[in-house]
């Protein structure tokens, strides 16, 4: 039996008092969970500690908290490991972020998480006519959506979403991963409608800042950010949805500029992201307005020599033979009948098979 | 030490002072840079978003070129985003011999082939793991005494931890702090050091993007930082180039200089601010060069001359 000290974030909005830290020492084996530690503190020292839990086996998703600053399930984290990763030997437990606190370690999942989940129409809208017997779905299609189906709705990704931190209206990683679950399902009849909705929403798929926080947060390997990228891929490439948020234009321009030059031409990327993937984009009203609003910044950058006229008008590029090699790779890969997407979550690693 | 050197695109485009300062700093660290001038853009996650196989193939080509660079110990980059985007592709390439063989089939037309297991390290990782902090400390001629520096990593170099090889033996999420201390400076802890600068959504949601930049700069300022240092040129664009706009979004004056990692190292190794391109920043690094009580203050003359 070992001793562990837990530093719990306590808060009761009804008390009118500010939140505070409180320490409790518990006795448990190192392989017992942080949740068991919290429950022992609750049973032995203070019955008023608020924690939500149910299965204690990392499947119900109830006990999401932040442990030493990182979101995780309290039942999914060993005390020994948590102590090792603490800053001062004391295991710090606090409620998840981006959601209001109801009491102590319990956050209001309804106010944020569930509201956003409902936003993406999280059910199958079947194709008509509905067959008399079951739908037959190709195995590959179901394997494709298994990663997003692994979600247990714990809210850990929502807690640490860095886009939501500055834009609370962002639909967010959990709900968008859920959206892919239906966009990737061949039985669903509304793929285009779903994608148009999520691409056109200013707080939709193009509001993700690509920070990887949700990938590290998820205790189930869902990689919500990767699902958001797949939604973008389908929306921009396959359904050719030209959204009002410049998402599709930005991606298309980036990809085609690298094809042309081998390197990124930043001076062209900005106008094309607003005006479309063409050298004439900068003369379109949408791009011109954006460039005008950025003029003070551009002027200053030019003045300081940070951005040189050469970088703007004579962009860096690879030698002709290398540009040709890059173009050939583009033509070969993009010319495939079906896009190849190697996903380690599904295929595993060679080492895992031996 | 001889390394296959991948500078990236932005370090030669909109932040030329990064590539320039790296070239100046390298000889002072006995680093020989063999430039991968045939390699293409890493895709910054955007090409992978468009078509993962395309990004994997373009980066496999870069890795194959690095493996061909004679006498080099490893590949080095100077951009957090390149590190993250390339690590993502390398993870897929290294996971499966079958997938790798398919990608190599595309590269075969050029006579190139990527073999599993390339070491690709950002300059930051190389400083700590290859050169070593003791060695770095011994080379410092102008300690950054009393300079309070806030680290800003960039998402791509700190997450996901498994892919980037961050563990107890390689606590790469703390390396910037270690380097700042080795250079004689003081680390300023603040809330945003490992958060997102907002750059990836600057064209999609400008308000949210600049709010991220402005908030982190403000937090660093409140924590007492004189400047920030970053290994990521894309973060630099949002934190420095866009800082005047970020100030408007968050409604406060910031005036926070942001240094590229090789610039901070270069100052401590005795280079002049102008040699390191510090005069090119949008936010003048006056808090760095006018630091009156420290030896860093001596560099004030050079900076004044440059602008």
Task: Describe this protein with a few key phrases.
heterodimer, A: 354 residues, two-stranded antiparallel sheet, 18 helices, globular, B: 307 residues, 8 strands
Could you explain how this protein is built, in words?
The complex is a heterodimer of chains A (354) and B (307). Chain A has 354 residues and is of the alpha+beta class. Helix content of chain A is 45%, strand content 10%. Chain A is built from 18 helices and seven strands. In chain A, the strands form two sheets. Chain A has a five-stranded mixed β-sheet with strand order 2-1-5-3-4. In chain A, strands 6-7 form a two-stranded antiparallel ribbon. The radius of gyration of chain A is 25 Å and the shape is globular. The longest helix of chain B has 17 residues, at 52-68. Chain B contains 14 helices and eight strands. Chain B has a four-stranded parallel β-sheet with strand order 2-1-3-4. Chain B is globular. The chains are: A alpha+beta (354), B alpha/beta (307).
Assembly type of the shown chains?
Answer: heterodimer
What is the H-and-E element order of chain B? Answer: EHEHHEHHEHHEHEHEHHEHHH
Strand content of chain B: 5-15%
User: What is the CA-CA span between the terminal residues of chain B?
Assistant: 35 Å
Give the largest interface: A-B, 76 and 69 residues
- String of helices and strands of chain A: EEHEEHEEEHHHHHHHHHHHHHHHH
Structural class of chain A comes to: alpha+beta
- List the strand order in the largest sheet of chain B: 2-1-3-4
Question: Number of helix segments of chain B?
Answer: 14
Structural class of chain B: alpha/beta
What is the CA-based Rg of chain A, rounded?
Answer: 25 Å
Span of the ends, CA to CA of chain A: 37 Å
Structure annotation, total helices of chain A: 18
- Count of β-strands of chain A: 7
How confident overall, as mean pLDDT of chain A?
94
Low-confidence stretches of chain B: 291-295, 297-307
Largest sheet of chain A: 5 strands, mixed
